[in-house]
Amino acid sequence: MPVDFETHEPGNPRVDLSEGTNARKLMESLLQSPGVGYTPAELAEETGVPRGSVGPTLNRLEAAGLVRHKEPYWAAAEDDRVAAATASFVGIKTAASTYSGDWYAENDGWDEELPDLNDEDQ
C-alpha cells in the first residue's frame, strides 16, 4: 500500500482492513472463532489468501494488536479493537444484506435526487 513518505513512520502498525484485502479476509476468518488458533496453511486454505502472503499479513496484524500468536497457531486478539472490528464487519454485512436489491441499490445517482436541505427556498 502506498504511503505518504514524509509522514510515514516505520513502526506504525496501521493495517488496511478494507473489503477484499488479505488482512480483512484473515481477520474475518479468525473472528468466526476468536478462541481458536489456526496455522498459516489452514488460514490460506480457508481464506484463499496466497500462502506466501499469510505470514507477512499476520505479522502486520500482530504488530497492530489485532491477532495473537503461539507457534505455529494464530488467533484473533482479545482486545477492544478486535471487538470494534467485529462490530464493523457485522454491521456492514447486515446493512448490505438488508438493503441489497432495494430501490437505492438499483438506481445509480439516487442521492442526486434528494432535496438540498440547505436550500432556503424550501
Automatic annotation (TrEMBL):
Q: Where is the composition biased (Acidic residues)?
A: 108-122
Q: Residues in domain HTH marR-type?
A: 33-71
Tell me, what is an example of a GO biological process annotation in this record?
Answer: regulation of DNA-templated transcription
Region annotated Disordered, chain positions: 102-122
- Pfam families annotated for this entry? MarR_2
InterPro entries the UniProt entry points to? ArsR-like_HTH (IPR011991), HTH_MarR-typ (IPR000835), WH-like_DNA-bd_sf (IPR036388), WH_DNA-bd_sf (IPR036390)
What organism, scientifically named, is this protein from?
Halorubrum miltondacostae
UniProt-recorded name of the protein: Winged helix-turn-helix domain-containing protein
